[in-house]
Amino acid sequence: MAHVALRSVRKSYSEKEILKGISMDIQRGELISIVGPSGSGKTTLLRIIDGLVPPDSGEIRIDGNRLTKENAPTIRARVGMVFQKPLLFDASVYDNVALSLKFRGVPNDLIRKKVEEALDLVKLKDLAKRNALTLSGGEAQRVALARTLVYDPDLILLDEPTANLDPANVQIIERALTKANVEMKTVVLVTHNIFQARRIAKRVALLLDGAVIEIQDTESFFNRPLDPRTRLFIDGDLVY
Amino acid sequence: MEGIGIFLEGISKAFGLILSSDPEILRITVLSLEVSMVATLVGAALGMPLGFLISSRSFHGRSLVVAIINTFMGVPPVVVGLVVYLLLSSSGPLGFLRILYTPQAMILAQALLTFPVVCGLTISSILALDPSLKETLKSLSAPRLWEAAILLKEIRVGLITALIAAFGAAISEVGAIMMVGGNILGYTRALTTAIMLYTNTGEFALAIALGIILLILSFAVNLTLTIIQMKYRKRR
Q1: If you placed Cys at B209, which of A20, A220, B13, B218 could pair as Cys (CB 3.0 to 4.6 Å)?
Q2: Which 8-state DSSP code applies to residue B59?
Q3: Does residue A113 belong to any structural domain of this protein?
Q4: In 3D, which of A33, A30, A26 has the Cα closest to residue A162?
Q5: Strands, E, within A85-150: which ranges?
């Protein structure tokens, strides 16, 4: 059974169809990258999988359970989402990460241990006491990733987590994602950075104008694309 | 020149009154503070939750409700005084309470003035929040109570601004408390109503002295709130 199964998912905003019947299966423990130009519907797709917005039609199944408005909070408890522009709270780095566990009623002594582990993973242990609002963009994104990883979600959704970050921050985030994936977490990475997709994904899907154009293992996607538009996108020649 | 003389005399009298701790002035000052502070707290206790509710839920006619609240933020105190007077007068629907011309009536009138100020500013503080805040909390599976607590923390500076504005509106108004309090010596006479009385009777120096005391009081309360506001300002 697929960890995430999408069937004919459609979504429109103000009469503009953003997703035009997306169907795909994402297996448990997979690190899949969804690539595509800006405005192709990647963010909307992630928000729908996280249950933040409902699809107009079609269905999403997580571990075989159909995602509905009613069960979304329960299913979401095992899902982590990292947004492109992370919103951190006006509190210390430690408290920002600890909040995800406090929401889940985790005892304080366990919170301390888990937060320290999560901050260590994203190399922010030294900044634990700093106010999160004073961090740089890269550090803030690492806090956002830590507060997601800290509650050990089965499924991690990331929306352009390294956009506009310097190579050092990109490397820390990619390593943390690879480690999570080694631990059998399913990772769905939305990016327009094809080099990043090539570096860490096991499978890559190209989303273009609200439709999945191609989905293949990484090696085949980049070396033997089936659709000419994939080749154009990889070569940077796709005009949109 | 005579005006300046009266003004200077008023200033010297103000400090004389403050230093001599005149019991009547003290009573007037304490009553003004009590009435306006309690009215601000009552207005906040009603206005903050309602503002929170209105801004965090979408419903049909929300813009109209917000526009009405914003309009009432600038309602003339004398109009509020008139309404409360009619409600509390012996033939009014709340006449059985028998609180007309008491400090309670003054608190009720000022609370009606502070309520829309607090409510309107709470709404604008919440609407000014980053829209992704609620989505982030939802995505992190924040329970309702946690969500409310974090939203409150995020708008705390705006809430203190609301308290400053509400207290300022209450302590400085004269129309409402004059109508429902009656400016009774030793019972409902407040700083603003006393200033009006002494101006009408030609005791300008005393009126100026009370005006200065009112300003000092208002400044002290606002300074305290501003210090708290600056301490808790966001570092964003």
Answers
A1: B13
A2: -
A3: no
A4: A33
A5: none
- Mutation test of the interface with chain B: which of A47, A87, A130, choosing the one with the most B Cβ atoms within 10 A? A87
> Domain for residue A224, yes or no?
yes
pLDDT tens for chain B, 236 residues: list them: 567 888 888 788 878 877 888 888 899 999 999 999 999 999 999 999 999 999 988 899 999 999 999 999 999 999 999 999 999 999 999 999 999 999 999 999 999 999 999 999 999 999 999 888 989 999 999 998 999 899 988 899 899 999 999 999 999 999 999 999 999 999 999 999 999 999 999 888 888 889 999 999 899 988 998 888 888 775 55
| Residue B32 contacts residue B192 (beta carbons within 8 Å) | yes
Q: Give yes or no for a contact between B28 and B194, defined as CB atoms under 8 angstroms apart.
A: yes
- Report domain extents, chain B: 2-231
> A78 and chain B: CB distance < 8 Å anywhere?
no
CB atoms inside a 10 Å sphere around CB A63: 14
Q: In A, which residues are within 8 Å of B152 by CB distance?
A: none
Does the CB of A129 have a partner CB in chain B at under 8 Å?
no
Residue A100: inside a domain: no
Do the domain assignments include residue A49? yes
Q: Is A50 on the interface with B (CB under 8 A)?
A: yes
Does A159 reach chain B within 8 Å, measured CB to CB? no
CATH of B2-231, one of 1.10.630.10, 1.10.3720.10, 3.90.226.10, 3.40.718.10: 1.10.3720.10
